[in-house]
Amino acid sequence: MNSQFTRRTRLIYTLAFSFALTAAPSEGQDRGFSNDYSGESYGRTRVCDVIHVKLEPVIDMKDGRIDGVVTTTISPIYEHLREVYFDAVDMEILSVALSSGIDLDYRYADNLLTVLLNRTFHVTDTFDIVVAYSAHPKMGLYFVRPDDGYPDKPWQVWSQGEMDESSHWFPCWDYPNDRATSEIIVTVRKGMRAIANGALISAEIDGQSGETTYHWRENVPHVTYLTSLIIGEYHETRTEWDGIPITYYVNPSDKKFVDLAFGKTPDMMDFFSNKIGVRYPYEKYAQTCVHDFIWGGMENISATTMTRRMLHDERAEVDYQTDGLVAHELAHQWWGDLLTTKNWNNTWLNEGFASYFDLLYTEHARGNGEFKMRLRTFRASYMN
Ligand SMILES: [Zn+2]
């Protein structure tokens, strides 16, 4: 994630500020760096391993509604498994069944869906649970549309999973200590695109309605919060690095800004692959600009979401560059996505490595002086 002033830093700043007011430490005195998030912590206990997640959402852009079916492939971690749990926030659960068609009983309370299995399952078993649900998400999936104040605003839908918001738009294990492959099958209205994680399996246009059904699949196992879906009217720019497709998606009226904003991405991919010693590991890399984004950028696996505010012209480039943001989110594809912390207390590892590799790219592209200057800026920002 990237933002100058996130909710979490705001909380930390608030805590730090109140501490400074009450304790008023003198210069040089140890203020301490711990806060409420520090100390020992343990990951949430899993009872099963999620292997694959298949999403088939039907999106109503006008109503801000999702009617979905999620099929989750599961294998027990412990013997004699009788219950499986899904995080599901403010949803209407319509049905729960095994993929064989057998209906399953369930309890839904306190945003937790407890599925009662029809028999005892064993560690050697693998099975699919199919949940049909409906929701008007207040988080997790965001609906952008024109209104009286902003009549030119485009119709868009975008998701934001970090930290635990995916469970607002599909029932899932919404915690970073499990990894699964995933796929999304979604139909969008004429003229729109759906952009999601992994490889594009198919994009079939209905000759009558003009609707397109997109099928994306991510074959590298990943944690839930990196699942992404974006729908909108988008201009696509294609390039590549060493055979890996790289795509940039912007509003058609914004296509003149693409090169300045994203142009160094292939060079960054080359630099990081060599510096880290692990080749960029996914099927493609997409960057998509959305309206009203709540962060600067979000490193969804193989499909980063960017704020539209990062787009800028030649004049602005003199004072404002976005290479840092682009490098930070790309570096996350290794640090945070390929390697993930088991719990959110260690998210500083994701952010620390992504920020440091952004600096290393600065050194590569602009020299050691610029590297040192930005390192100093980062340090001052942290100390503040
Ligand atoms: Zn980040």
Structural overview:
The chain is α+β, with helices and mostly antiparallel strands. It has a domain at 45-228: Sandwich (Immunoglobulin-like), CATH 2.60.40.1730. The protein contains 7 helices and 19 strands. The strands form 4 sheets. Strands 4-7-2-1-10-13-12 form a 7-stranded mixed beta sheet, with no helix packed on it. It has a 5-stranded mixed beta sheet with strand order 15-16-17-19-18, covered by helices on one side. A hairpin with a 2-residue loop joins strand 15 (235-241) and strand 16. The protein starts with 6 loop residues before the first helix and ends with a helix. The model is unreliable at 4-28 (pLDDT under 50). Zinc ion (ZN) binds at residues 1-2, 328, 332, 351, 354.
Features:
384 residues, alpha+beta, five-stranded mixed beta sheet, 7 helices, binds zinc ion
Can you give me a brief rundown of this structure?
By secondary structure, the chain is an alpha+beta fold. The chain has a domain at 45-228: Sandwich (Immunoglobulin-like).
Widest β-sheet, arrangement of strands: 4-7-2-1-10-13-12
Task: Specify Rg, calculated over alpha carbons.
Answer: 22 Å
Structural class: alpha+beta
Largest sheet: 7 strands, mixed
Multimer state = single chain
CATH superfamily of the domain at 45-228: tricorn interacting facor f3 domain
Helical content class: 10-25%
Q: At the first level of CATH, what is the class of the domain at 45-228?
A: Mainly Beta
Which spans of ≥5 residues are poorly predicted at pLDDT below 50? 4-28
CATH fold topology of the domain at 45-228: Immunoglobulin-like
Q: What's the order of the H and E elements? A: HEEEEEEEEEEEEEEEEHHEEEHHHH
Number of strands: 19
Average pLDDT across residues? 92
Hetero groups: zinc ion
Number of helices: 7
The CATH architecture of the domain at 45-228 comes to Sandwich
Percentage of residues in DSSP E strands: 25-35%
N- to C-terminal distance: 20 Å
Shape: globular
